[in-house]
Specification:
The chain is α+β, with helices and mostly antiparallel strands and 163 residues long. It has one domain: Nuclear Transport Factor 2, Chain: A (Roll). 33% of the residues lie in helices and 41% in strands. It has 4 helices and 7 strands, in the order αααββαβββββ. Strands 1, 2, 3, 4, 5, 6 and 7 form a 7-stranded mixed β-sheet that branches. It is globular and about 45 Å long. The N and C termini lie far apart (66 Å). About 9% of the residues have low confidence.
Length: 163
Amino acid sequence: MQTHTLLKSLVLILLLTSKPAFAQSTADEDAILDTVDQFFTALAERNRQLLASISMQGSLNISTSINTGGDQRIRIQNYAQLLNNLSSDGPALLERYWDPTVLIQRDIAVFWAPYDFHVNGEFSHCGIDSFQLIKRDERWLLTNLSWTVERTGCAESPLGPPT
């Protein structure tokens, strides 16, 4: 009887003093989604400083699309090119995602989500975003961005029309 009581006490102490495993993942997932949201804010505001603050130098950015002839097109940009493409002049950009999947293992993560993209309020294309992130100094930073560009066959966004 005494062993049973001791065991129950130990289990209770462990439960009360340990942090649930999912708590860290939830906090990290929220932080990852915040970084991703900041990326889309940087695009919309053409804010190179914000983009630089959430991206690791040396990152690689790759998009894939199919041209009108049916051939695959791959566009590769380095960190500097990504920042330079975000000049202060240009059309209004709006990218929206939904139903994100976030995978986390210690200090690396993957963000995967369908998205739609609008230029000057007009639909441009849809696709899948696949972003890789790394945790450095308690902050999640974008390390590599990949996305598909689909100009046809896009399902209607569950987010409705852009506002």
